[in-house]
Protein: Sigma-54 dependent transcriptional regulator
Organism: Maribacter flavus
Amino acid sequence: MALRKENILIVDDDIDILELLQRHLKSMDYHTFKAISVKEALFILKDTEIDLLITDIQMPEIDGLQLLKYANEHHPDMPKLVVTGYPSVDGVLEVIKSGAMDYLTKPFTKAELKDSLAKAFAHRPKKTPPKPKPENINNNKYADMVGESDAFHNVTNIVERVKDNKATILIRGESGTGKELVARAIHYSGKYSRAPFIAVNCGAIPENLQEAELFGYKKGAFTGANEDRNGFFQAAEGGTLFLDEIGTASLTVQTKLLRALQEKEITKVGSQKAQKVDIRIIAATNADLIEEIKKNTFREDLYYRLTVVEINVPPLRERKSDIPLLVEKFLRKYGVEYKDRLLRIAPEALQVLERYYWPGNIRELENIIQRAIIMSDGIIGVKDLPDLLKYQIEFPERGFVPLREMEKEYVKRVLAHTQGNKSKAAEILQIDRKTLRDKLS
């Protein structure tokens, strides 16, 4: 079994230093996380297993010494390195007291960085193997996906079963449900995670170019083919090729896809020579492929080749218990990006989100949370949400009622929202005040 790459967190407000460190560390086969502030670093430390921390000292708002103090209290066994452009004797002593194992002065060489890493990891205490988790414990996070609903766990259970083999998979679901996220979870959670993951939106490639883009072409195969070129299949060699919107692939491409799945080989446009490929194909669609088969726009034999394993990603309206976790994820992600801090959401605003039907699914929720963060001055409230959500009708669960009664309840709700202001309520409802009074009677 391949060993997991060490995760190294780099913290510096200098983007150039961050990029330099990341390049050096990747060339040494480490996995890196970057943070441009201590606040962002704290979020990463909270949710990610970090094996080593590299931080600058002089940073705005909260400095690196405070980060080292926090890391010592919460992650005492994690090695820590300091990189700074302001060295001094007192500074060195303070850094050593703070728990850092070494001190690098900018500019530094790759060899110096490598030596410091070796020292840090050499003094790292050996980890005891984690105790296996009981099978009946349900986690609410898998890869970059979050949820606690039965629908969520149905998906992650299938992902867990297929992640370490190269069975062909078809992911079905409405737009915005996170089909690509599921595909990435399959790839990056399994033993092929170091191999390429190539995502292709078939719907975004013009039909006359699909074959050349997917399978590559030979020089002179068509006008503009000035050199030999590999396609997405060759780029994904050894890893995963994710074909999104597979229902938009042309019939010509479908025929070649079928051969690729059956024979594990492809042929470039303009070539007569077949080329063996070793990849896993994951396809996704929001279309009803059975209906497309009936219309003769999708090959039935290709459909059955694609559905060795089928994963149905549920719409958000069928997993509403996951909304609080998704909101928390997006608040953390975009709060740091837009406001450099973690924002909270008021309970009544969360209730509005849980009530909504979500035709655009998780993508729509993510967009609305981004907007709310930008519009909010602090805690996100109902006022920061789009009107479409504020005035969404919540149908009662007591059974069917007369239309007039349902209309009256909605008018009362709008009136409550305007704090009894009938003029504003009438404006929202696009009726006059007399009609408003009639509907309340």
Q: What stands out?
A: The two ends are 73 Å apart (CA to CA).
